[in-house]
Amino acid sequence: MFRTCALMLSLIVTLGLAAEEVPLDSCDRLPTIQISAGKKQFRFLLDTAASSFLNAKSFLEGAATGVKVYAWNGASATVAREVVLRDFVVGKHRIIELRLPAIDLSAIGHACGQRIDGILGADLMEKLNLTIDLTNRVARLGMESQQAQDLFPELEKQLASCLQAFNQGDEKTFAGCLDPEVVLFTVNGDYRGCKSVLGYFRENFFAKQPRVSIAMTTRSHHALGDAIWLEYELQIQSSQPVTARGTAIYRKEGDQWLLVNMNHSTPPTPGPDQTKLPG
After folding, report:
1. Is residue 75 one of the residues assigned to a domain?
2. 193 and 121 in one domain?
3. pLDDT of 138-167, one tens digit each?
């Protein structure tokens, strides 16, 4: 149990905390940060006393619209182009379909001696849960609560699809739900790597007749940077139904959530006619 908990902690640190720090650059001592949008790299000025804007000379698309510019001394009306960024990425944190006004920020670039492509203001800092550490020259990002909540339904939808493939014995489809380095802990041993884990499921579930079905209920979920840690309950329907609770870690790769680690904290010992547990 100690070894299992230590590995889980290691995975949490690796998957959750590694994505939280992004190095800062400077433009005449003002903190700047690199972001990417549409596979291009841009330099944004960090400003806790302003709202977020794009440089109209860096982002040429968009239609003119009236906006209010917020700064430390209040709000003022101006005309800007509204630009929709399909993919706005800071470190490993991504915002989809971000709408920002674009105005001419040339004066800021001239003042600090470098081109500034945008201002990452207080509104986006709050959304990204971003804090600035000037001493260590890094920005620390966390998973903003609403952003995290938006990920859970997406994961649950994919889990339902993976569970359907599992219950149908569709090994090829289910393999796409596993990280290549997946680790599975069971009462009968530990299995490491996709091939080994699939072998365990094939022997103990896919090849069983009559077919064994599994239902999975999520009890709680926790965002860990680019990963999600689930606490769940399994109901295994066989000649002697089994219920067990466990934990699992999933990471996102592209549009797919992949199982990285699965473990039951207190699995019952299977009897002679009882189905083995998958973790």
Report:
1. yes
2. no
3. 998 875 455 566 778 889 999 999 999 999
CATH of the domain at 71: 2.40.70.10
Cβ pair 49, 57 in contact under 8 A: no
- Does the global pTM surpass 0.90? no
Residues 137 and 162 in one domain: no
Rg of the Cα atoms in the chain: 24
